Amino acid sequence: MDLRVFFQKLRKIENEIAAPEVVVVSHETPDGGRPGQLTEVPRVIAARLILEGHAHLADEAQAAEFRAGVQKALDDAEKRELASKVQVNVISEENLRALKGSSRPAKSKS
């Protein structure tokens, strides 16, 4: 294939894609590509994958479902991280009284 024609087709496909980030669905390829895998990629990469026959654009429903799943996974990961940061200290009553006693302001003599 002529490189000039290749890049003209690439720019044409890229210009047809409106969003800067799009979800693509992979095709089965002879080198082991798995069909049906959803991935969010920049417009430039999506155009190249489409031109080379490795993927096609996902429809709106597929893209929305994919993004919702990614957001849920991100929220779950943030919750796990916050849960791992929770610290619990066990102190005896004697230590608690000592802490309470040291936090009281001293009474001034007037």
What report would you give on this structure?
It is a single chain. This protein has 110 residues and is of the alpha+beta class. The protein has a domain at 1-69: Ribosomal Protein L9, domain 1 (3-Layer(aba) Sandwich). Helices cover 55% and strands 13% of the residues. A 3-stranded antiparallel sheet has the order 2-1-3, with helices on both faces. Helix 1 packs across helix 2 (43-51). It starts with a helix and ends in a 7-residue tail after the last helix. The mean pLDDT is 89.
Summarize the structure in short.
With 110 residues, this protein is an alpha+beta fold.
Name of the CATH class of the domain at 1-69? Alpha Beta
Biggest pleated sheet = 3 strands, antiparallel
Number of strands: 3
Instruction: Specify the CATH architecture of the domain at 1-69.
Output: 3-Layer(aba) Sandwich
CATH fold description of the domain at 1-69: Ribosomal Protein L9, domain 1
* Proportion of residues in extended strands: 5-15%
Give the % helix: 40-55%
Q: Tell me the series of helices and strands, N- to C-terminal.
A: HEEHEHH
The backbone outline, from C-alpha atoms, is rod-shaped
The helix count comes to 4
Q: Could you say which structural class the secondary elements and strand pairing correspond to?
A: alpha+beta
Strand order across the biggest sheet? 2-1-3
| Computed CA radius of gyration, to the nearest angstrom | 29 Å
Low-confidence parts: none
Arithmetic mean pLDDT:
89
Distance between the termini: 96 Å
